[in-house]
Amino acid sequence: MTTNVDVLVDRYLTDLDAELHDLPAIRRQEILDEVGEHIAAARATLDAETEAAIRTVLERLGDPADIAAEARDRFGVPARPADQATPWLEAVALVALVVPFLSLIGVVLVWLSRRWTARDKLIGTLGGIGWLVAPLGTIGVSAGGGGLGPVEVIVFVLPFVLPIAAAIYLAIRLRARAHAKAAPRTP
Amino acid sequence: MVPAKRESLITQMRRGTLEYCVLALLRDQARYGFDLVRTLGEADGLVTSEGTIYPLLSRLRRDGLVTTAWHESPSGPPRRYYELTPAGQEALELFTAEWDRFTNAVDRVLKQGERP
Asked: Is the pTM value of this prediction over 0.90?
């Protein structure tokens, strides 16, 4: 039960973090911390931490997009017009990520993007450096004297699978965010 | 009045006054975010979603009207308390005086219109 509740809170804060991306870093962190503290204080007043009770707390806080809109307004950050535009940077980043010698460029581009959260970017980075394991895999296999055990196969296959898996994950996250923007969120 | 129009009227009135309501709540005591937000929420129509107070608090802090300090809490981890600065005090006094003058003037005109 507690796990479900934590997942809900975590998702809310992750959404808020992503929505606040175009604010100055200090303000973004400040708002994020304070909303986090608000949730913690609200949880402390609950008799039982049921999923429904936490949903009510989050609903009262409101849509992360509304909080971000208010923050932009208060700090004079222009509302973003380009949100529905084609994410070219992200598209190039995903392609680069799965090409062996371009993957590090892909990782840099992933971090430059404002459409992914920090967690998404970390997963992208792990996938991007997957290629670096390739030489290790080759060495491992040749050192193994030609014997192809399950460990060698995994080490050999991992560099190919990791970047592709990470790219697919990032693409899914990108789509999910675009949809969340296009359609009003239901609480 | 059309609901949408009524909504935007309230939004505009709220925009200019909410920050002074926050300052007023801090006049006599420091409060932590949750307490501040829930107290504001008790005043009908002032706050639509609680989370939108935090960007405002952040702005007030940047402008030096409030400051924050950590204090022990009776239960759980320490809490961040908001306090009024001298500049915040001054801004609140200025607003309070102007607000009285303004609402009086508007009230008088509204009532004049009522007279047969």
From this structure: no
Interfacial residues of B (vs A; Cβ cutoff 8 Å)? 32-35, 37, 41, 48-52, 54-59, 61-62, 75-77, 79-80
Interchain pair B79, A37: CB under 8 A: yes
- Beta carbons of B49 and A62 less than 8 Å apart: yes
Amino acid at B83: E
- Cα separation, A84 vs A92, in Å, equals 17
CB A14 within 8 Å of CB A63: no
Residues in chain A with CB shorter than 8 Å from the CB of B47 are none
**Do B58 and A63 count as a contact with CB atoms less than 8 A apart?**
no
Question: pLDDT grade, residue A181 (50/70/90)?
Answer: low
Break chain A into its structural domains and give their ranges. 2-80, 83-182
Domain boundaries, position B110: 3-114
Pick the closest to residue A58 from A19, A18, A12 (CA basis): A12
Rounded-to-integer distance, Cα B105 and Cα B116, Å: 20
Contact A71 B57 (CB under 8 A): no
pLDDT at residue A25, rounded to an integer: 94
- Choose among A42, A62, A75: nearest Cβ to B34: A42
Please report, for the domain that includes residue B68, its CATH number: 1.10.10.10
pLDDT tens digits along B36-84: 999 998 887 778 789 999 999 999 999 999 999 998 877 777 889 999 9
Number of structural domains chain B divides into: 1
What is this model's ipTM? 0.86
DSSP 8-class letter at B82: E
